[in-house]
UniProtKB/TrEMBL annotation, chains A, B:
Belongs to the class-II aminoacyl-tRNA synthetase family. ProS type 1 subfamily. InterPro entries: aa-tRNA-synt_IIb, aa-tRNA-synth_II, aa-tRNA-synth_II/BPL/LPL, Anticodon-bd, Anticodon-bd_dom_sf, Pro-tRNA-ligase_IIa, Pro-tRNA-synth_IIa_bac-type, Pro-tRNA-Synthase_IIa_type1. This is Proline--tRNA ligase. One of its GO terms (cellular component) is cytosol. Transmembrane segments: none annotated. Consists of three domains: the N-terminal catalytic domain, the editing domain and the C-terminal anticodon-binding domain. Homodimer. Its main location: cytoplasm. The keyword Nucleotide-binding applies. The gene is proS. SUPFAM superfamilies: Class II aaRS ABD-related, Class II aaRS and biotin synthetases, YbaK/ProRS associated domain. It comes from Speluncibacter jeojiensis.
Length: 581, 581
C-alpha cells in the first residue's frame, strides 16, 4: 500500500496542544494520530487508526495462539446481570448508566465478566465442553473521575478482555499461566518495557492477580520492587514483613504520662525525648490511631480504628484496597461529638476496645511491641503500652504507606519505588461469577460441577499511548516496526522531475514487494518534510534528495538517527534487507 | 486456518427460538451465530463474528477503492454539536442519551454528520485539501421503538458511515456517484439482490437521496416500482402525477345539500348516488379533510387541514416525511371543542380558510376539479365545490396512500408495490452541517468557501441478516463464498481411524493452500454432522464417509444440493478447483 501525504487526511501541528502534559499525548496529537472530542473521548485519524489496528492484530494473534476464541458482546448492556453480581452498585460513579425509551436501565460495559459467564452458561452444559477461553476486542466505557493524558486514560477506550472457564483449580492455573505468557509475548512484540507485579483484585473479586505495568515516570501506578530478588508488587498488594513477636515476660509496665499539647506525632516525639525515658524515641515508637467509618455497600456505617506507627502516613489506596468491597470515610466532628470516648489527639487502643470499636493495626504491631500511644484523656499518653498484653487488636490491616528501603516481603532485600502504567491485568477470579449466575455443568461422574473463571485484560488503545511514551525523542514518535503505520517513509526532497519519478518508482516497487509506504509527494519544502517524517515516526526513512543527481538516495534510521547513502539502483534491495533485519 | 468443531465455541439448536419470526433470525440463532442479550442487542459468537468481519472487509475494500479514508470516531459523543445541528431534539426518543458523573449530557452516536463536519473543520482550511471522503466502521446506537428480527433491526448495530466534502455541487455529485457505484459493487460481491429507490432524506436534511433496498418479503420498507420504466422509489418519496388543471369557465356552481348521517365517505357516496346528481359518484369524487396539529420541534402547535380524495387513506409515513422536521398529532375532542367551526364529519375547505387554518391538498386537487366535500354545518355537504374557484388551498402535500396501479411519476406506466430492507443510503446532504458549524476554507480566489457534504451509510450487521434472509433453505444457511465463515466444511463421517487420518490430512493440505476449513472432528453421529453442515451453511462440504474404504470422498454443493464422489487422491485438487470457480 502506498499512502500519499498529498492525499492523506493529516495535518501535523508545530505546537503542543494546550491540554497535553505528557510526551505521548503531545506527540500523538501533533502528529495527527488522535483528536480530542470530549474529556477522555478521542477520535482516531488515519495513521492513529493504523497503529491501533496493528496492536489489535498482535493481541489477536497471541490470543488465537493460546486457543482463545474471539466473540463480540455488545457495549450496551442490561442492568440485571450487573445487579445480580452487585457491580451495578459497586462500580459507583465510574459506570456510565442510561435508560432506554421504556425506562429500562442499561449500562455501557466497563468489563464483561457477567456477560461471559452467562454466555458460557447459555451454550455449554457438560464437562466435555471445558476448558474454554473466549475473548473480544472492543470499546469499553468507564466514567473516570480524571481522564488523563489523551488516550492513556480515556472514558471510551479499546480493550481486549478474555475469560477462561475451567472445571478445576489446576485448570484455572494453566489458563492463567497461558494468558500471562501470551501477555509477555504481546508486550515483547510491541517493544514495551514492563514489570509484572502482584496486585489486589479490586472490585473484580477473586484471588491470584497480577498487573503488567509499563515502566514510565508518568505512570499513575506506584509499584515497588526488590532489586535483589526481582519481587515486584503494586503498592496496594505489598504485604508488610512483620517482625518476630517479643516475649512478654519482663517488659516494663505501661505508664500514663501527662503530655499536654502533643496532638501531633512530632510534638509527642519531642515530649518523649525531653522526658528522659532512657532511650531515644522516634515516630516509629509511637502508635497513632486513625478513625474512619466503613460500610459494605448498602450497609450501615461503623467505626473502625486503625493503628499504625507514627512515622508513617496512611496510604489511601492501600487502605481502600484493604477494606474493599467496603468503602470508608474519615470521621467528622459530629462523630467525635457522638462518641465522647474519642479524645482527639489522644485516642488509644484501650478506649476503642472498651467501647467495642473494631481496631485493626499495622502488621508491625506484633505481640510484645511497646508503644507510646494515646491514653484516651486530654493531654495524656501511655508509654510502654504493650501489644498482646495491654491491648489486643482485632486483626491487622495493610494501610500504612510503603517506603523506599522497607524490607521486601520475601526477605531478600529492600524495596524501591517506581512508577508504571497498567497495560494488562490477569486474575484468577474463581467462582464469584459462576456462583452468582449458578453456572453448573454436568460433571464426569454425573454430578453438577461449577466452572471457575479467569479474567484477563489488556489495554489496546492505551498501549498505543504507552508505546509512544516509551519510544519517542524530542523530534517525534519512533514506532517499533511491528506497529508502525507504514514500513517505510519515502521523502521526495528534490524538485527535479526525475527525482520525483525515481521516488514514485521506488515506492511502487516496494509496494509490489508487500512493503507499506508513506510517500511524501507534497509540494512542501524539504525542511517541512524532514520534520514531519521525524514527527510521524516511521522507523525507516528514505530521502530522495540532493544526492539524486549523483545516483544516490539516503536511508535514515529513525531509532538510531544514523543515515547512509546508497546507490539508487541498490535502494530497493537495501530497504528490503533493512526491513528484514 | 482449521476450525475444529470439537473445540469451537458453538452449540447448534434443533428448535427455532421462541422470539424469532423471520428465517434469518431463526437460522442465525439456531446455527449459533448470534445470541440475544437484550431487545435489539446481540452478541456475535465465533462463526457470526467471522461473517461480520468478512462483510466489513468487503465494505472496506470498496471504500478504499474510491479513495475514502478510514478513521474512527467515538460512540460516546457530547451533546453540544448535536444541539447546534438541532438533532439532539429532532431525534426524539430514538436517541440514547446519558449523563456523565459531572452531569454533562452525552449521547450514543446514531450517525456522525456533526462530528465529521467538525473533524474536517479541525484539520483542513484550504481549497487545496479538497475533496476528501472519510469513513468509519463502528457500533451505532438507536433506541428503536420496535427492535426486530434479531440483528436485522437492532439498537446496537455495526454500520459503515462515510462523509464526502467537496467545494462544488459538481464535486458532490461525483462523490455521490462514486459511493453509489461502490455500494452497487459491495452488494453484488455479497450476493444481495437489491433495488435503488428514490428516498426522502428524513431527519438528515439535504436533497438528492437514494436508498438501497434488499428485496425481501419481510422488509419493513415498502417501495413502488414501474416495471415499464424501471422507476423505483420509497413510498415516502413518490410524487403524485397530478392531472392537468381544468378551465373554470362553464363549470356548474357549488350547491349545499342536506346530507344527514354522512360522516363517513361510504355513507356520503351512498347519499350522492341516491341523490340523482346526474352522474355516478365514487369515493374519488369526494374530498375528505383530515385535521392534525403540527409543530416544529420546540414550537407551538398549529392546526393544519389536509384534503385528500375520499377513496384514499392517509399514509402516516408519507405524511410524516412530508411534514418533517415538523411533527404532527391528530386533533382531539378538546381541539374540536376549542374550534367550534370544525364540524366533525362535515369539515370543508371554506371554514378552514375563513378561520386562517393552513390547508394543504393532495396534488390531484388541481384547479377546476369539482368536489363533494363538507359544508361546515352538521348534516350538510357541498356538491361541485371547485378548486381554484370556490377555495384556494395553501399548497399541496404528499400524504395520500400510494396504490398498485397508480400512474408512475415518470408517466411511463403504472406502479406496483414491493417490500425491501434498507441496507444502504446515499445522500447529497449539501451544506446543512457545514453551515451549522461554519466550516469555511480558503478558496482559490482567496475568499472563503463552504464545503458541501454527502453522507453515505451501509448497514454492516444488518447485511449479515439480509444475506441470510436471501440465501437459505429449510435446512439452514447458505453463505456466498465471499462471506462464508469458512471455505470448506469437512465432515468426518466414518469411524475408521484411517478415515479420520485422511480427513485430517486433507484439512491440513487445504490449510497449507490458504483455504480455511471447518473440520467436524466431533464424536457425534454422521446424521448430526450432516444436519449441522447444512445449518451452518458453508458452501462446499466434503464428506469423508462410507466411500472411504473404496478410496472415495464426497463433495456436496450447499447451494445446488448436488453431490459427487471423487477419488481420495484427487480430493485436494477438486476442492481447490471448485473453490476457484
Amino acid at each position: 500500500m502506498i499512502t500519499r501525504l498529498s492525499q492523506l487526511f493529516l495535518r501535523t501541528l508545530r505546537d503542543d496542544p494546550a491540554d497535553a502534559e505528557v510526551p505521548s499525548h503531545k506527540l500523538l496529537v501533533r502528529a495527527g494520530y488522535v483528536r480530542r472530542i470530549a474529556p477522555g473521548v478521542y477520535s482516531w485519524l488515519p495513521l492513529g487508526l493504523r497503529v491501533l489496528r496493528e496492536v489489535e492484530r498482535v493481541v489477536r494473534e497471541e490470543m488465537d495462539a493460546i486457543g482463545a476464541q474471539e466473540i463480540s458482546l455488545p457495549a450496551l448492556l442490561p442492568r440485571e446481570p450487573y445487579e445480580t453480581s452487585n457491580r451495578w452498585t459497586e462500580y459507583g460513579p465510574d459506570l456510565f448508566r442510561l435508560q432506554d425509551r421504556k425506562g429500562n436501565d442499561y449500562l455501557l460495559g466497563p468489563t464483561h465478566e457477567e456477560m461471559f459467564a452467562l454466555t458460557v452458561k447459555g451454550e455449554y452444559n457438560s464437562y466435555k465442553d471445558f476448558p474454554v477461553t473466549l475473548y473480544q476486542v472492543q470499546a469499553k466505557y468507564r466514567d473516570e473521575q480524571r481522564p488523563r493524558a489523551g488516550i492513556l486514560r480515556g472514558r471510551e477506550f479499546i480493550m481486549k478482555d478474555s475469560y477462561s472457564f475451567d472445571l478445576t483449580d489446576e485448570g484455572l492455573a494453566d489458563s492463567y499461566r497461558a494468558h500471562r505468557d501470551a501477555y509477555e509475548r504481546i508486550l515483547a512484540r510491541l517493544g514495551v518495557k514492563y514489570v509484572i507485579v502482584s496486585a489486589t483484585s479490586g472490585a473484580m473479586g477473586g484471588s491470584a492477580s497480577e498487573e503488567f505495568l509499563a515502566e514510565s515516570e508518568i505512570g499513575e501506578d506506584t509499584y515497588v520492587r526488590c532489586l535483589e530478588s526481582g519481587y515486584a508488587a503494586n503498592v496496594e498488594a505489598v504485604k508488610t514483613l512483620a517482625p518476630q513477636p517479643i516475649p512478654l515476660d519482663g517488659l516494663p509496665a505501661a505508664q500514663v504520662h501527662d503530655t499536654p499539647g502533643t496532638e501531633s506525632i512530632d510534638t509527642l516525639v519531642d515530649w518523649a525525648n525531653a522526658a528522659e525515658l532512657g532511650r531515644t524515641v522516634t515516630g516509629a515508637d509511637t502508635l497513632k490511631n486513625i478513625m474512619v467509618k466503613t460500610r459494605v455497600p448498602g450497609g450501615e456505617w461503623e467505626l473502625l480504628g486503625i493503628g499504625i506507627p507514627g512515622d508513617r502516613e496512611v496510604d489511601e489506596k492501600r487502605l481502600e484496597a484493604a477494606l474493599e468491597p467496603a468503602e470508608y470515610v474519615l470521621i467528622t466532628e459530629t462523630d467525635f461529638a457522638n462518641n465522647p470516648f474519642l479524645i482527639k489527639g489522644y485516642i488509644g487502643p484501650k478506649a476503642l476496645q472498651d467501647n467495642d470499636v473494631r481496631y485493626l493495626v499495622d502488621p508491625r504491631v506484633v505481640d510484645g511491641t511497646a508503644w507510646i500511644t494515646g491514653a484516651d484523656e486530654q493531654g495524656k499518653h501511655y508509654v510502654d503500652l504493650v501489644a498482646g498484653r495491654d491491648f489486643t487488636p482485632d486483626g491487622t490491616i495493610e494501610a500504612a504507606e510503603v517506603r523506599d528501603g522497607d524490607p521486601s516481603p520475601d526477605g531478600a532485600g529492600t524495596l524501591v519505588a517506581a512508577r508504571g502504567i497498567e497495560v494488562g491485568h490477569v486474575f484468577q477470579l474463581g467462582r464469584k461469577y459462576t456462583d452468582a449466575f449458578e453456572v453448573n455443568v454436568l460433571g464426569e461422574n454425573g454430578k453438577p460441577v461449577r466452572p471457575t473463571m479467569g479474567s484477563y485484560g489488556i489495554g489496546v488503545s492505551r498501549l498505543v499511548a504507552v508505546i509512544a511514551e516509551q519510544h519517542h525523542d524530542d523530534k517525534g514518535l519512533r514506532w517499533p516496526a511491528e506497529v508502525s503505520p507504514a514500513d517505510v517513509h519515502v521523502v521526495i526532497a528534490n524538485k527535479d522531475e526525475s527525482a520525483r519519478e525515481g521516488a514514485e518508482t521506488l515506492a511502487s516497487e516496494l509496494d509490489k514487494s508487500g512493503v507499506s509506504v508513506i510517500l511524501d509527494d507534497r509540494k512542501s519544502s524539504p525542511g517541512v518534510k524532514f520534520k514531519d517524517s521525524e514527527l510521524l515516526g516511521v522507523p525507516l526513512v528514505v530521502v530522495v534528495g540532493r544526492g539524486w543527481a549523483e545516483g544516490k538516495v539516503e536511508l535514515r534510521d529513525r531509532f538510531t538517527g544514523e543515515s547512509r547513502e546508497v546507490a539508487t539502483e541498490r535502494a530497493l534491495g537495501e530497504v528490503l534487507a533493512t526491513l528484514r533485519d
